């Protein structure tokens, strides 16, 4: 009777990988201000509130259409308010179901959206500030125009951009550290 017997061949142990030597990589903690945190929700709501104030103040003037920069401000800050409100809803959902928004695709989407909307808001606020200075200081036509409202809307757009910057930087940092 010829029965085959299993042959035992010595096998070398595989070399240790980086995870074997140093242990598995730890994930970065969710810092306040990142998506899905209370700080992130606070930043999104403050972005939304200041953007809505800027749009409301500018839209209540009857001659904001006279300068293209003011029209651009209304458009950019309107987009900013829509973006911030929609991400605030995502943050509220993530906080209610206690879910972390650390998915690479989600963070990439948030980072790109934050980068685009913050750039548009900053550019619109700078252009509106330039036109406001032109009307108020250089041409001395504040008596005819609504300089105070233009300045208020521009200031609210800058504050909205200041609230947007930490969101963008934290998302970018989280994306780069993955």
Provide an overview of this structure:
- It is a single chain.
- By secondary structure, this protein is an all-alpha fold.
- 68% of the residues lie in helices and 0% in strands.
- The chain has 5 helices and no strands.
- The mean pLDDT is 86.
Describe the secondary-structure layout.
Elements: H1 18-22, H2 38-59, H3 68-96, H4 104-138, H5 147-176
Short description:
By secondary structure, this protein is an all-alpha fold.
Helical region count? 5
**For the CA atoms, what is the radius of gyration?**
26 Å
Terminal residue distance: 61 Å
Based on CA inertia axes, which overall geometry fits? elongated
Indicate the proportion of strand residues.
under 5%
> What structural class is derived from the secondary structure elements?
mainly alpha
What helical percentage do the residues reach?
A: 55-70%
Query: How is the biggest beta sheet arranged?
Result: none
Which H/E pattern describes the elements?
A: HHHHH
Low confidence ranges: none
Total strand segments? 0
- Determine the mean pLDDT: 86
From the structure above, extract its key features.
mainly alpha; elongated; 178 residues
